[in-house]
């Protein structure tokens, strides 16, 4: 059995185990290492450990390289497909947190797009990239909730036009660290890729127009439950905008830092709860709602001071 061992240096102490491994092996994602740790293929000082465990100087990490090689991210099976609604032209599906919407570097399989293709087969629009057939819009990997699927080109064109014209109502709910200064408001700040960190987005004067409406549903201490409505749909829009007003999404370490880390996995406390739109072909008004996942429960109980 092939193993790799690493001894933690003084300057590396304090780093999370999963984050350290993702930096040590940049071709593997952090979620990949979380699965490896959970399945016992990574040992810390010859004992099983948790992904969130902070490392100490002289800790020894032992990795089962055979498992790392055979459990490549490219061999992950397509996730199950949770269909909320379906007709001849379109479908509404619910994506779990931790699932990539469509293929990207480091995630060529195990995507929602792959699950959609396997289920619907040729009954999907073929506009744009063949790797994301039928996918009208996307959610970040660690965000859960409702997504639209187009089963033919006419439906896809109609839905894409409605998105561009802001005629599709998209509502999210989030638990954040911090309390907004007002009970409701509009965050209007253009976004572009961060010139210093290309995997992040940031507010930039030359960026694309981005507008997020927020409403404070409840708060207690430093936790708040927010409802958010998208007027535009830029990459990481909600996450950047909320961090901008000092209310970062819980568990969003990318934009909120380690202080917002509250879960073992990378799942964000952000969920696409509501979609409402006019059917592009029939003209029927459609509306769908998704309940908040269980990962929200403990934080909602703290905010509302009761069992939910």
What do you see in this structure?
The protein is α+β, with helices and mostly antiparallel strands and 308 residues long. The chain folds into three domains: 3-71, Structural Genomics Hypothetical 15.5 Kd Protein In mrcA-pckA Intergenic Region, Chain A (Roll), CATH 3.10.290.10; 75-165, 2-Layer Sandwich (Pseudouridine synthase), CATH 3.30.2350.10; 166-308, Pseudouridine synthase, CATH 3.30.2350. The protein is built from eight helices and 15 strands. The strands form three sheets. Strands 5, 6, 7, 8, 9, 12, 13, 14 and 15 form a nine-stranded mixed β-sheet that branches. Strands 1-4-2-3 form a four-stranded antiparallel β-sheet. Strands 10-11 form a two-stranded antiparallel ribbon. A hairpin with a 2-residue loop joins strand 2 and strand 3 (47-48). The chain is globular.
